[in-house]
């Protein structure tokens, strides 16, 4: 997948909605990510986020706080790249 392939605003809107989580901490990471990347979001970033959104809230938080590293099917570059972006401080 091309790193520069931009996604349509409607896709971004649906993705933002699907990224809403039950834990406030996860929501804060997501809000910061979208503030930073929403205008330039690529298909590759969308893919990584969608894979992360399949996780339970506590498992996602462990990854966001770097308490754990991605394992199994999540141990792929697209997920690791998005995690780096999600973990970036303000």
UniProtKB/TrEMBL annotation:
Its main location: cytoplasm. Pfam families: Sdh5. It comes from the Bacteria. InterPro entries: SDH, SDH_sf, SdhE_FAD_assembly_factor. It is found in: Cytoplasm. The keyword NAD does not apply. Keywords: Chaperone, Cytoplasm. Belongs to the SdhE FAD assembly factor family. PANTHER family: FAD ASSEMBLY FACTOR SDHE (PTHR39585). This is FAD assembly factor SdhE.
């Amino acid at each position: 997948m091309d790193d520069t392939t931009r996604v349509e605003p409607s896709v971004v809107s649906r993705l933002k909605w699907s990224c809403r989580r039950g834990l406030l901490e996860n929501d804060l990471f997501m809000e910061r990510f979208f503030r930073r990347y929403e205008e330039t979001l690529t298909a590759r970033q969308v893919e990584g986020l969608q894979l992360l959104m399949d996780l339970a809230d506590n498992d996602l938080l462990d990854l966001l706080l770097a308490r754990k590293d991605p394992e199994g099917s999540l141990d792929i570059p697209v997920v690791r790249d998005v995690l780096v972006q999600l973990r970036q401080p303000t």
